Amino acid sequence: MAFRPVIWFCAIAFLLHSYLLVVSAKKTYIVHMKHHQKPASYATHTEWYSDHFQSLTSASPDSLLYTYDAAYHGFAAALTPEEAESMRQSESVLGVYEDTLYSLHTTRTPEFLGLDAGLGPWAGHSLQELNQASQDVIIGVLDTGVWPESKSFSDFNMPNVPARWRGECEAAHDFDPKIHCNKKLIGARFFSKGYDMASGTKESQSPRDKDGHGTHTASTAAGSIVQNASLLGYAKGNARGMATHARLATYRVCWKSGCLGSDILAAMERAILDGVDVLSMSLGGGSAPYYRDTIAVGAFAAMERGILVSCSAGNSGPAKESLANVAPWIMTVGAGTLDRDFPAFATSGNGKKYNGMSLYSGKGMGRRLVELVYNRGGNSSSNLCLAGSLDPAAVRGKVVVCDRGISPRVEKGAVVRDAGGVGMILANTAESGEELVADSHLLPAVAVGKKVGDLIRQYVKTAKKPTAVLSFGGTVVNVKPSPVVAAFSSRGPNMVTPQILKPDVIGPGVNILAAWSQVVGPTGLDKDTRKTQFNIMSGTSMSCPHISGLAALLKAAHPNWSPSAIKSALMTTAYTLDNTNSPLRDAADYSLSTPWAHGAGHVDPHKALSPGLVYDATPEDYIVFLCSLGYTIEMVQIIAKRPNITCARKFHNPGQLNYPSFSVLFGKSKVVRYSRELTNVGAAGSVYQVSVEAPPTVAVTVKPSKLVFKNVGDKQWYTVTFVSKKGVNQVARNAFGSIAWKNAQHQVKSPVSFSWTRL
User: For residues 316 and 506, what is the distance between their CA atoms, to the nearest angstrom?
Assistant: First the structure.
């Protein structure tokens, strides 16, 4: 979600789980069938699945929620534990898995990425030609739906919908396809059977967005240009998506309490069949083996059909090992900051002025200092300003210091306001460090980092009569340094396959302005009655659609490129220096960032259009990779959905996959050797020299050190040998470097992570 606490998600998951236990013995299960065993007597797999389901259960036909064919081989059904076990015993069944609850990972961006200035020539073609080509590219967004009336979905001057499109807009009581869909928004569907089963309630059955998140992500990916957009005056300017001429299809899979795997899989299935070119998914759960990961399985099927799948990395940073969506056939996207801020200030009675951030848009506090209080309530959670924790008699007419954490940031402000407080200083703790996220608070409020927060907390405790006044500085641009890696952006290493470096890249994900639903205020709180056409949000939810839109531009420029080639172009051209020409920093503590936080770096659309070389990979390559993970053939079949898999070919190391980055694990062996193949997508006769950066503890040899590509499309192999040096006391358990292939026109750069495992 745009950056909401994990505890909220856990509470929802607990409530859903409790409901399942108490109200009904049935749960939703996803059943994976042996697709190739369909008897000839059945015309379709759907008929076979339905009959098989009926034969093994006493359930009514409506307990069969979905049948899958393109994204998965099997069906989702409401079953008792006994019925699920009966399914597992069937000879025709590969596996039976309980449905998974996923969560959402919650505009100067185009200018910051250089899109407003135009992308310049691409292979001899103009920006106008690229825009024209992108009209044939379709981005599918799986999220909370869409607010179709937003100006971001205007189809002004757009040509007819591509003839190959097989999708549709689904009618609902509040959604008329003839009125609400057009040549920009060409598809709008909803999927809720799994959610309805798990929650026991039916929300509005409609593609319409009642949350705002889906409208925000869809317009970020491919929104039309809207002039004079702002959030209540903040970030005023043109709002636009990354691929302003691309088409959009939205698939509502997320509801009030989250997103169910069975619904997500059904939407992925439909999107594949509808004909999308890019799938954008700003949602995820924890990490799991790929055959148990609904999104990974569906994404594999999409990749096989040439669809790039872009997913958010998660908002569980800065903790290590916190990534979601790490399958190598998925583009895993972390978040960075823009060069835009919304400064706000807290001035204390001792004359000190502290810098913070806010999107508060009301009349303010004036200039008069008022009393400042902290931890003044009837219970131990008053420092966190949780609901019911503040004593109105102690906070009425005062500014309240609230520690960040546990409850949503904007909800703390509502608690202060309801208790009679006139302002709030939202102070970070060690967990959120120095990172500031702007919020459209309901009362005058300023967010400050941990260091400033500690100074203010100390001032309140030691001053005889602490006072403060809050003020607001509007919007400032050209902020330095930027980008900075967002503290909330989830981090590696990759715990599912440590030999694959994740995340892949970072994109803008902090304080992003985009379109918004008109049935919810900018804070998302029920008591927020304000209405705004645009909102500013933060999260890897926001960075993911940036990359989805850029992938659509690359697809338009290079329609024959595979998803792996597009991913490679975005990764190998990413940058790792900020706008002060210094290495990227981490917002958690402003230390130097690493590839475990930023992957290959921050995307650069200009360079990605012409990367020179790409690391390509076929579905067969990914199957060899899966066979190298110690999975059974049945597990590999769940993902790859092919009957004839033998795993006769395996990599000696999963890191041997032709991936645009490297993850080197030193354990028993002090030598790791990887081979890679590069494909020339630049000029004929291109020559590249290798350039290596490595820590002093590792020797790196690349052979050959020069690659010559006589023709466009030529492929060349190279081998890298990494040796952990003897006699070096390896105190750090990890280190980082890079391998780059360079000539006068291009730098094709790959990050390398090194890990030393304790034996």
Answer: 15
14 class by beta-carbon count within 10 Å (0-12 exposed, 13-18 middle, 19+ buried): exposed
Average pLDDT over residues 13-23: 41
Count, in order, helices (H) and strands (E) of the chain.
Answer: 19, 37
Q: Compute the distance between CA of residue 170 and CA of residue 192 in angstroms, rounded to an integer.
A: 13
Query: 719 vs 35, 496, 656, 701, CA distance in Å?
Result: 39, 25, 10, 8
pLDDT at 19 over 90: no
The span from the CA of 495 to the CA of 342, in Å, is 36
Closest residue by Cα to residue 519 from 510, 511, 531, 527: 531
Contact 347, 466 (CB under 8 A): no
C-alpha dihedral over 411, 416, 420, 422, to 10 degrees? -110
The residues pairing with 334 across neighbouring beta strands, listed in sequence order, are 506
Whole-angstrom CA distances from 283 to 251, 513, 514, 684 are 13, 19, 18, 41
H/E/C letters for each residue in 94-148? EEEEECCEEEECCCCHHHHCCCCCCCCCECCECHHHHHHHHCCCEEEEEECCECC
**Mean pLDDT, the chain, as a whole number?**
91
Q: Which of 722, 631, 713, 621 is nearest to 669 (CA)?
A: 722
Complete DSSP assignment for 312-341: E--S-TTSTT------TTSEEEEEE--SEE
C-beta separation of 229 from 251 below 8 A: no
Instruction: Select from 33, 35, 30 the least CA-distant residue to 644.
Output: 35
pLDDT digits (tens, 9 = 90+) for 716-747: 999 999 999 886 656 668 999 999 999 999 99
Instruction: Give 559-618 pLDDT, tens digit per residue.
Output: 999 999 999 999 999 999 999 999 999 998 889 999 999 999 999 999 999 999 999 999
Spatial CB neighbours of 525, under 8 Å, sequence gap ≥ 6? 408, 410, 411, 414, 442
| Distance in angstroms (rounded) separating the CA atoms of residues 203 and 122 | 46
Active site residues: 143, 213, 541
Distance CA 749, CA 575 (A): 9
**Residue 374, strand partner residues:** 401
Separation between Cα atoms, residue 316 and residue 503, nearest integer Å: 13
pLDDT digits (tens, 9 = 90+) for 300-324: 999 999 999 999 999 988 999 999 9
Asked if the bond preceding 481 is cis, omega within 30° of 0, the reply is yes
* Structural tokens at position 290: 């790929």
Q: What is the DSSP letter of 653?
A: S
For residue 427, give both structure tokens. 């102070």
Phi, psi of 528 (to 5 degrees): -90, 105
CA distances from 352 to 347, 426, 470 (A): 6, 17, 12
Structure tokens at 520: 């919810």
pLDDT band for 435, please (50, 70, 90 cuts): confident
